[in-house]
Design a protein that fits this description.
The chain is of the alpha+beta class. Helices cover 34% and strands 28% of the residues.
Length: 198
C-alpha cells in the first residue's frame, strides 16, 4: 500500500505583548489565508503595529480566526510562568478532497462518502506572549514584536511565492475547493483532533 506523502509544514514565530497579541496573531493568520484561500474575495488590509497586512473578508473565516485567537489568548493569559513570557501554538491545515480508491469494505461502508480529505499544507504559528514589567522591558518587547511581525509576514510571502508545486488542482466548482482547519496547540493535541474543519 502506498504511503501518503507528508505535507509541507511551515513554522512561523511571533512575539507579542498582552495589548497587541490578538491583532498580531489575527494579522498573521489572515496573511496565510490571503495567499491560500481560493474562493473569490475582495482584497482588504488591516494595520497591525504600523504594518499593513492583507485581510480576508469572509464572515465564516473571520469568526473562526477570532474564536481561535480568543482561545489562545485565554490559554496564554491563564498560564503562569516564572519568566515574563509564555508560549502557545495555532496550526492551520489545508486539505483537498479526493475520491476514495475502490475496493476495501465495499458495501460495508453503508453509503459513506466516496471522498477523503488529504492535507496538502500545514502552518504552525508559535506564539510567545511577553509581559514586560518595566518601561525599559516594554520598549524592548515593542521593538522585538514589530521586528518579528514584519519578519514573519515577509517569510509567509517568500514561502507562498517559492512553494507552489504541491498545491493540488482545483477540481470542484464548490465555493471553497480546499477545506481547512485551525487548531489550537496542534503539536500538543495532535493534528488529528478536528477543532475547526471548514
Amino acid at each position: 500500500m502506498e504511503q501518503p506523502r507528508r505535507p509541507p509544514e511551515y513554522i512561523l514565530e511571533v512575539f507579542a505583548d498582552p495589548a497587541s497579541i490578538k491583532d498580531v496573531v489575527r494579522g498573521i493568520l489572515h496573511t496565510i489565508f490571503f495567499h491560500r484561500y481560493f474562493p473569490s474575495i475582495r482584497p482588504s488590509t488591516i494595520e497591525v503595529r504600523d504594518l499593513t497586512l492583507p485581510f480576508v473578508t469572509d464572515p465564516g473565516l473571520e469568526t473562526l480566526i477570532d474564536t481561535r485567537v480568543y482561545q489562545l489568548v485565554r490559554q496564554l493569559s491563564s498560564t503562569t510562568s516564572p519568566s515574563s513570557s509564555v508560549r502557545g501554538q495555532i496550526g492551520v491545515q489545508f486539505f483537498e478532497k479526493r475520491r476514495r480508491k475502490a475496493g476495501g469494505l465495499g458495501w460495508f461502508t453503508g453509503g459513506a462518502k466516496a471522498e477523503e480529505e488529504i492535507c496538502w499544507e500545514q502552518w504552525r504559528l508559535e506564539v510567545t506572549l511577553a509581559t514586560p514589567k518595566t518601561e525599559i522591558e516594554r520598549s524592548k518587547v515593542t521593538k522585538a514584536m514589530e521586528m518579528t511581525l514584519q519578519k514573519t509576514a515577509l517569510k509567509i510571502v517568500a514561502i507562498v511565492n517559492q512553494h507552489k508545486d504541491h498545491i493540488p488542482p482545483i477540481t470542484t466548482s464548490e465555493t471553497n475547493p480546499f477545506p481547512y482547519q485551525i487548531n489550537l496547540n496542534p503539536r500538543i493535541e495532535g493534528w488529528a483532533k478536528s477543532i475547526g474543519m471548514h
